[in-house]
């Protein structure tokens, strides 16, 4: 593992890419980058309304489990973004979600066997679940193909390439996107219930922004800098993937500083350590302080919340350029960086704009817990998951 102090060197290592995967990446990037980005900002409010109706019933009996709630939101937003509206009325969506999460829980365990453990009955049960998931994904793809207006990611309308079978690609995106987005949503919710002052701040910001726009989308997302700063600070303190890995199979890598990484060596970048290192982030590196991502419009840094929104509704701060923050790697870096980054940020920010605009999120009284970062389903989360409630705001 490489030391986290040398961030530029770590970044350099992440640049290397296999020529082979470049084409596949580019085509996926194209699909995720245009029409889908628009959908990611439009859908969350509708989804939230629908999920909150059901949440009211659960809340009548007590609080809502933050982890479960976040998982359901992430899964639904991603499903509706990738498959279109058809996903929201698909009667098997709940079964699909359950299967996906069950497989995600067991996948690392079974993958850890060097030899396929065909002698174990549990393994065949796991295989059975994987086959069921594949069948359901194919069923959904076929529904999208039949419904040409579904506007799904794989554009099943127009010229259909029947040779192209997107099932594997879609399932991987559903796994990775649902788990990582759920972890980030749960992380943000936990920060909001433990920092009510910051929650109030973004509520004011959202109200101001709503005066000039209906809701934040990829065009106007910069109008909610505090909200974005909370999303980024949550991702800094608890990156869903705590490690990045690179491996050059054939050639040694000669770095500018003279270091040689031998072929086939696996280079591991400890993202969580890099993002919590005080030499990069200052003395309060381990504290939740979204203001570190903001600067005043006159370029001065903001260290606390004072005067960052004015009474007149004019913003006095902006989000810092993320490119300049070398030690910020929640979505990876270089040629293999996450291609769903924009989609995740726009989708999650629109979701929280709708959520905090209408509700105050609180901890269920008497259920105060002290969550700690722990691995869960291959992603880092704050556990135990707090019980939360939503209180409708009067304005
Ligand atoms: C909060 C949400 C997300 C987080 C934190 C996240 C994080 C990451 C990270 C750390 C990587 C590895 C990057 C590297 O090695 O440099 C990655 C790769 C990837 N992500 Fe995400 N991701 C998120 C959401 C999404 C979504 C919503 C999608 C698409 C629907 C997506 C698609 C991908 C793909 C396709 C790759 C592989 C890129 C490649 O190997 O070339 N991600 N993501």
TrEMBL record:
Family note: Belongs to the cytochrome P450 family.
Entry-linked PANTHER family: CYTOCHROME P450 (PTHR24305), CYTOCHROME P450 12A4, MITOCHONDRIAL-RELATED (PTHR24305:SF166)
Superkingdom classification of source: Eukaryota
Cofactors (names): heme
SUPFAM superfamilies per record: Cytochrome P450 (SSF48264)
Signal peptide: none
The protein's name in its UniProt record: Cytochrome P450
Keyword entries, A-Z: Heme, Iron, Metal-binding, Monooxygenase, Oxidoreductase
Database matches in InterPro entries: Cyt_P450, Cyt_P450_CS, Cyt_P450_E_grp-IV, Cyt_P450_sf, Cytochrome_P450_monoxygenase
Binding locations of heme: 338
MF GO annotations: heme binding; iron ion binding; monooxygenase activity; oxidoreductase activity, acting on paired donors, with incorporation or reduction of molecular oxygen
